[in-house]
Design goal:
This protein is an alpha/beta fold and 152 residues long. The protein has helices spanning 3-9, 26-33, 66-73, 83-90, 134-140, and strands spanning 15-19, 41-49, 52-59, 79-80, 108-111, 118-122, 128-133, 144-146.
Length: 152
C-alpha cells in the first residue's frame, strides 16, 4: 500500500480504495472508480513560491481559472509545479497525486462544485483511486473552497 492509502484509510471517515487498471480517458477513469467524470478530481501541485506549494483539486472535466485561484488564495503569482518538482514535494507521480500522505503537508484548495459530491482522486500509486465524500476531505484538510474553474 502507498503512504496515501495508509493515510486515507486511517482518516476518521469512510474512504473506499479502488484498484483498477490504467485508464486511457477521463470517462474510463471515472467509470473504473464508479463516479461521473465531473466527480473524478484532477489533483495538481501549484507553486506559490520556491518550496511553497498548494494542492489544488478541480473536477476532471474542468480546468483551473488562474485568476480565480489567485484571488481565492490571495496570491498574485501562481504556477503549475513541473512534474519533477511536484513529485519531490508530494512523493507521488503525476496522475497519482493526492493530499493524503504527502511528504510535507500543504494547503488544499478545492473547487466549490465538489461540495456534497462523492469524489474520486489519486491514491499515490497507478491504477488506484480513493473514493470519498468531498465534504469529508474539505473538513479533514481545512481546505479553501472557492470557484476556481473556468466557465463556472
Amino acid at each position: 500500500m502507498s503512504a496515501a492509502v495508509d493515510a486515507a484509510t486511517a482518516a476518521p471517515f469512510e474512504v473506499n480504495v479502488i484498484y483498477h487498471g490504467i485508464p486511457t480517458s477521463l470517462e474510463e477513469a471515472a467509470e473504473m472508480s464508479g463516479v461521473e467524470p465531473h466527480q473524478l478530481q484532477k489533483t495538481m501541485v501549484v507553486r506559490v513560491s520556491e518550496g511553497e506549494y498548494l494542492i489544488v483539486l478541480v473536477p476532471g472535466d474542468r480546468v483551473i481559472d488562474w485568476k480565480k485561484l489567485r484571488h481565492a488564495v490571495g496570491e498574485s503569482r501562481l504556477s503549475l509545479a513541473p512534474q519533477d518538482e511536484a513529485e519531490r514535494a508530494t512523493g507521488f507521480k503525476r496522475g497519482t497525486i493526492t493530499p493524503f500522505g504527502v511528504h510535507t503537508p500543504m494547503p488544499v484548495v478545492v473547487d466549490e462544485s465538489m461540495r456534497g459530491e462523492r469524489i474520486s482522486l489519486g491514491a499515490g500509486e497507478p491504477g488506484t483511486n480513493l473514493v470519498l465524500a468531498a465534504d469529508d476531505l474539505i473538513e479533514h484538510f481545512a481546505a479553501v473552497v472557492a470557484d476556481i474553474v473556468k466557465g463556472a
